[in-house]
Structures are given as C-alpha cells and as structure tokens.
Amino acid sequence: MDDRPSPASGAFRLGWEEWVSLPKLGLPALKAKVDTGARTSALHAFDIEPFGPATKPKVRFAIHPIPGRDDVSIPCSATVLDRREVTSSNGEAELRYVIGTDLEVGGRRWPIEITLTDRGSMAYRMLLGRQALAEDIVVSPGDSFCQPILDYEAYHSAEVKHVAPDRTLRVAVLSREANNYSTKRLVHEGEKRGHVVEVIDTTRCYMAINKHAPEVHYDGRRLPRYDAIIPRIGASITPYGTAVIRQFETLGTYCVNPSEGITASRDKLHAHQVLARYRIGMPETAFAASPKDTSNLIGLVGGAPLIVKLLESTQGKGVVLAETKKAAESVITAFRGLKANFLVQHFVKEAAGEDVRCLVIGGKVVAAMKRTGAEGDFRSNLHQGGTAETVRITKAEREAATRAAKAFRLDLAGVDLLRSEEGPKVLEVNSSPGLEGIEGSSGKNIAGLLYDEIEKRVRPRPARRKTATRTT
Length: 472
Fold this sequence. Notes:
This protein is of the alpha+beta class. The protein contains eleven helices and 27 strands. The protein has four domains: 7-163, Beta Barrel (Cathepsin D, subunit A, domain 1), CATH 2.40.70; 170-255, Rossmann fold (3-Layer(aba) Sandwich); 284-347, ATP-grasp fold, A domain (Dna Ligase, domain 1); 351-456, ATP-grasp fold, B domain (D-amino Acid Aminotransferase, Chain A, domain 1, 2-Layer Sandwich), CATH 3.30.470. Strand 8 (93-105) and strand 9 (108-117) form a beta hairpin.
C-alpha cells in the first residue's frame, strides 16, 4: 500500500537546488540541481567502464562529489539498466549508461534511474530530472533547499565508512591452475557476493612499461582496472609472477600480497633473515657457499640430526633429514654437486613430525590446523601424505604467526610453526597457502574471510582534509 501523501494532503516540496544522498553508491552528500525541464536525471562520473557478463552487465565509475576537490574521489559500481542516447541542453547527443539507485532527500527515499556523464565542469554534480520525481512532489522554482541541508564534511568523517555500499568489485586471481580447489573457491565465493572474478594465467600476462600509462596486457588486449589482485604464484614462476604483481602495484591496484613479500618468503634464506631481523623464533639455521665450511656449517645448528633444505623447496620437496654427521656431509656434498642452493637447519625432534599451520588474514589468525606426517616421515606436508586436524593454539603461537605475516607484509599467509621446548618456532611463511586443508579441518569459510578483508581494504575511505576553505 502506498502511504505517500497526495499533493492535496501535503505535497513534498523541493527547491530548484537541494542536498541529496545516493546511499547505494556510497554518496552521503551531493548538491543537485532540480530541473523539471529535463526528462532524464544525470550524475557526474568519470573513468566509466563496463564489466561483468553480457547477460548481467555492470558499470564501474568514479565521482568527485565536491566541486573543485579532485582529491576526493569515490569509486562506485551498479547494474546497467540500459544504454540510452541523451541530448543535453546545448543540443549535443551522447550515448550514456543508465543505472538504477536510491535517492534520499529530507529523510525520504525512493528508487530512480540516472544516467552517467562527465559533469566535472558544472557546479552541480547531479541533475534531477522530472522522470525521477514522484507525483506528490512539488518543485518551487523560486526556492532553494526546501529540505534539510547536508554537508560535504561527510566525506572527511570516519562515519563515511558506515555509509559505504557493498559495491561490486572486479577481482583477478593470478593463477595457472584454474581448476584447483583454492582457485575455484576464490572464484565461487567472490561471485556469490556479487563480485566479478576473473582467473588470469600469470605467464600469459605481458607488460607495457612507461612513465605515463603503464599497462598489463593479456591475450592481445589491455587488462582493465581491477579493484584487487589475489596472487596465486607458483614457485616455478616466482620471478615473472612477482614482476606482474609489481606492474599492478604501479597501477595502484590493491594486491593481497605484495611482490616483495612473495619474493622474500619464497627464498628460504631470505625468509629466515627477515624472521631474524624481527626477532621471531625459528630453528637455528646456517648457510655457506664453500665446501670447506661443511663441518662448521653442521656445528652452527647443533650437529646432527639436522635438516638440509633447498632454498626454494615447496610442499616438502627438496627437504632431507640427515640423522648423523656423516649422512649430513653426504647430503650437503650431493646438493653442492648439483650446484643447488640450500641451507641447513636444527632438527626439532620434540615436534615429532607435527607442525601447526596458522592461516593469517589481515593480521589475524583466522584458523589453525595441526598437520601430522605419514608414518615414518618427518615431513608433515599434506602433499606428502600427512593428515590435518583442527587445533587450539596458544597466545605465543598466535603472536608468532601474526608477527611473521606482518614482517613480510602479507595480508594472506600460511605460517607453519613447530612446537619446541623453547616455544613456537616459525618454520615457513607461505604466501600462497592452499585453502582445501584448512577449510576442511576448521570448517571455516576461509575464502569468505579473505573477501571480508578485500572489501574492507578497497571500499571508499574518509578523504584527508584540505587546509584551504571547503566549497559549500
């Protein structure tokens, strides 16, 4: 039942200019010109870009809501209702995207259709045409601001976080394995939330590097702007994969894990040097290039038994347990013969073939599992036949995991800990942790928690204040 008042019983009055809000677009305050001579409403927009499937197209754009303040920019997105040719007051015809959104004026809210066009040179960021006016609305051409006056301060206040909409994001998952569990979960969870998620094969990206307009190309076309990049970079392509991520970073795209953090975490020697710099507990570790230093190298980690580990080992591959000094010398000699880069590490015997994987998202441990190696195997990796079960971690383990992820500036990390007599020791920091084992053991929606972090990071934020007098 429509309980709006009829014109006779008390019309809703608007002046020729009014303060309005578009809450679904995250625009809490706009000064609009009300023009009954114009049929169609228009909203200032730039960087207008369609995206999404052809059957359900969307459009993304940005708006400078405050005239004269190009430093305040709000990103928006909406479903496309139509593309329509609109003739402006100066007689020029333009093909515009038409979107649907809610208009709020004086505490009253109703749906409208609005076209997108660049009104950057105009005093009013929005034109309200007669098609958007309900039957009971009366416009008084000689009056201004018949409804309550708003303030551009809304864009500087922390309260803007609460009015920011759940806008559709364009997300790219950099992965060469579109059909593995983790990639499929990231795509499914993102699409379930209404986002557009694309899987991009990292090795098929190529880059145009210049100071004016750096670009990333893929299969013969320039890739569009993404709100976020989720890197799933395999160890075999780390150098090229991180180069692609650096290019997206140059473009200003939010990358869940930065290129520097991925590079450092992949190189075991570099990773342990980072952990040492931040005084994070880890097994005693040593590295040397000369074969003359083998005995000293073994002694630095407390002697045998010890672990010999390739610097870029993954999933337990390239990791050997040497139980005696003679065995250690043989393994080291063999690795050097292959000209492989490796390190040696103290063997934490009391861990008994178990470790704890802590999944860290946005600086918080969101799930943890205990991994136990297959019978007779000191490695606990699931890829080597290990098993996983949920585990309750201690405060010290939680702190070690979060500090390790922070040291590499990773917003998504799998931190592997050993439980030693001296407390937790970080064994590895994984920048592309698999989701299957941790989701299965914990029963948590890890992909969803990652999207929570992405949405928090890329939604509109309060703009910094400008010292000059604000435009009102």
